[in-house]
Write a structure and sequence with these properties.
6 helices, mainly alpha, 121 residues, globular, TerB-like, 67% helix
Length: 121
């Protein structure tokens, strides 16, 4: 995933984590895990950690920079954020529905992403 896409991806994940008004320690832990998986540069990591300090609005996220496969990955990690704190907020479900709609995810793609999210928590 190119650098600008990585940043937008993280901004989306962080905005989902904050949708209920706070960043739960388990959500932060999932984001830290993702930072390690995507092998960010030092500069990217510093930028991402800066975004963790305060809520981001989902409205400012550029989903258009991502292709379908990245949309599936975004949906999976969004599910992880929703499940991480053990509480499902209606605003989180709304964002998940918008991601599904934006990327035109099939029921099968959604089911696979949700299953992967549950297995990887």
């Amino acid at each position: 995933m190119p650098d600008s896409k990585k940043i937008e991806f993280f901004k989306a994940i962080i905005s989902i984590a904050y949708v209920d008004g706070k960043l739960d320690p388990r959500e932060k832990q999932e984001i830290e895990r993702l930072i390690n998986i995507l092998e960010l540069t030092e500069e990217e990591e510093k930028l991402i950690r800066g975004y963790l300090k305060e809520p981001l609005s989902m409205g400012k996220i550029k989903l258009s920079e991502h292709d379908k496969e990245e949309g599936i990955m975004l949906y999976e990690y969004a599910c992880r954020m929703v499940l991480a704190d053990g509480k499902i907020d209606p605003r989180e479900l709304y964002i998940l529905s918008k991601i599904k709609e934006y990327f035109n995810l099939s029921a099968e793609e959604v089911a696979r992403a949700e299953q992967a999210a549950k297995e990887n928590l």
